[in-house]
Structure formats: structure tokens, C-alpha cells
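Model it.
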Amino acid sequence: MSPWFQYSTIKKVVHSQPWSVPLLGALFLDSFGSGLIMPFLVLFFLKTSGLSLEQVGQMLSISGLAGILAIPVCGMIVDRLGTKPAALASFLLRGIGTLGFLIFHNIWGVTIVATIVTWGQRAWPVANQSLISQLVPSENRTMWFGSSRSLRNFGNALGMLIGTGVIAVFNTPFAYETLVFIDAISFLIAAVLIAKIPLRNQPIIKKEQAPKKVWAIRFSYDSNLMRFLVAVAPITFMYVALAFTVPAFIKEISPDLSWISGVLFTVNSLAVLVLQIPLLFFTHRLSDLQKMIVGSAVLGLSYMIFLGSAFLGSVHLNFFVPLLFVGILLFSCGEQLFYPASATIVGEIGPAEKRGQSISSYQLLYGISNAIGPFIVAYLLTRNISLSWSFFAVLAFVSVFLQCMLLPNKNGQSRSREERISQ
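Modeled.
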């Protein structure tokens, strides 16, 4: 299948489906607002609240742990009320909570507000994956996941470019606060767009009903899902590496280079925008599980590059910045291969009536890693800068090994996705 055919398929869906424009608009606004502040969130807290790096790490970990509750709750909302209420709650929580960052500056006030924001953040991937899984035919989901990520990363890149320019020129507390305010407004407008998506309150399930005997199986004991979750758990720390470790790491090496975090985030977003579809096309002969394995290995290699930059940073600063860009490009490629494929697998691994629970269980891994990751990384960075990247590299290659254990044998090539994962 050529990329032009894939693009035309997506274009046809956008023009023919009434849900596509508000959904894509919400994705763009969500990503644009997030892009404004994402590279600078840690710096925002350090600049405006007076918290230390370890305190910021502790605050993010506390709010992350508290925010994990939103993942199973969102899964239940999706299964019982539908995807729209879950998506609306996600955007409203993030919009209102982000405004709270401008009001509260002590550690407990910031922690409470960050928890509200985290509830919305943890709920959105569950709601988003459920929306796409519900609205898009199974044969087009991987492509749609990749394409929607490209759109989101276009918004991220645009927001990051603007945010980086603002911080590079002004770098004042007011500049950070302005970016946070625009971020909050973008979430609230996105909520309005989500409300316009024509969906019934109850989830629509057609032609995917599982046999009656499946209803007797307890979801928590689904061996296929459990093996999959164990295999991918270590790699879910990748967004801690991107959102927390990169800006904190650069600040530790050279505070004068803090603005480069925004450039690296922009490169990451542009790489997803430009390379997502070509990568999916050139790997179309690989199964989704094989794409995940390759993506995880590339992520591990990117961590090794960042580790090398840590050794060179304090001695040869001229090599430090180029290695950062090589590392972020490899990270972007690994992320693009891993996430769409894993999202497709988890959306199909169980019966349709349990899709919300299945996806929420997968997103729970990201919630846990994003909760404990900042605390671990802040501790490692303050002890030895290179330890943080060693930590991520070990996790990535452990995940590669575990995912390889899920590969089917030669006699199982024609089996269903669920049967293959259980091998």
C-alpha cells in the first residue's frame, strides 16, 4: 500500500465523516497548547515557585501517583457512558487545573493543582484511543493512530517554536505564565470541539461482539493482556525521558543552554510529523509486534547517545549539542514505531466490550512510569548525571527482550493477534 493511497484514505475519511473535523481540531489545540509549555514545565516551576529540582521531581511524582486513579476511572466511563464524557472530562480538568498553576505557588498548592491536571492527562490517552478504536475500522487504525500523532506533533512543533522563541527572548516569570495561560485556554476550546462530535452516550459496538463464553473471563486475569503489559512496561518510561529528563539534564550540564530543550522538543514533534507516515510505510511488512520491538531497540540506542553526551558535556561542550540532536532524532523514530503499533494491539487484544478497560490498563503503565519516573530521575541526576540515561537504556533493552518473548513461532504465523501474543 503506497503512502499516497494511505493519505487519500485519511483525506476521504476527513471529508466524509462529521466527527473528523472536531476531533482533529481538538487534537491540534491540545497539542499546540501543550507544546507551548511542555519543554519548559520543569523550568516554569523552578522559575516561578522557588522549588528545587528534587522538590519538583517529588511534586510531579506525588501528583502522578494520585493521577493514576483517573486511568481506570476513565476506562469505566468509556465502557459505561461512552467516549465523549471521558474526553470532555479530560480537557476540562486540564484547562481548569492549568489555570491553577497561575494561582498557587507553594508546594502543596502546586501539587494539588498538578494532580488535577494529571487526572486530565491520564484520562485523555484512554479516551483518545477509544474514540479512534470506536470510529475507525480495524484495518485502518494503525495508520489513523500514526496520522493523528502526526497532526498532534504538528501542533506541538508549532507551539514549541513559539514557546522557544518567547523564552529565548524574554526568559522571565511573566513569559512562562503567559505560555501557561494560553495552554489552559487551548484545553477549554478543545473541550468545546469534543462536545460537537456526534456520538451517542453509550459506546457503539458493531460486528465485534465476543462469544458469550468470553464474558465469564475476568479481565484482570486475561493472560494475553498481562503478558503484553509486562513486556512493554519498561519502555513506557520513554516520556519521562523526554518531558522531564531532557530539560533537567541540559540545565544540569549548562543552565545557559536551557532554551535548547524547546528546540529538541520541536525537532521531536517535527520528526513525528514528517517521518510517521514514511516509517509506517517502509515497515508495513512487519507485524505490529515487530514494529514495537524495532522501536524499543531504537529508543534504547537513543538513550545510549544521550549517555555519551553526558560524558562529553562537561568536557567538550561542542560535541554535547550535536549529540543531543542525534539522540532526539533516534528517540523520535523509536517512539513513532513503538506507540502506534502498541496502541493498535492493545485496542484489539481483548473483546470489544472490554476495550476501555484494556486501553486503560495499558495507559496505567504510563501513569505509573510518569509518577515514579521524575522522583527516580531527579535523584539520579543530583547524584551522577550519567546514571539517569543508564537507567533508561537498561529499561529499553529489557523491554526488547520481553517483547521478543511474545513473537510467534514459525507455525503460528497465521494465528490471530490475541493468539500470537499469548505464545
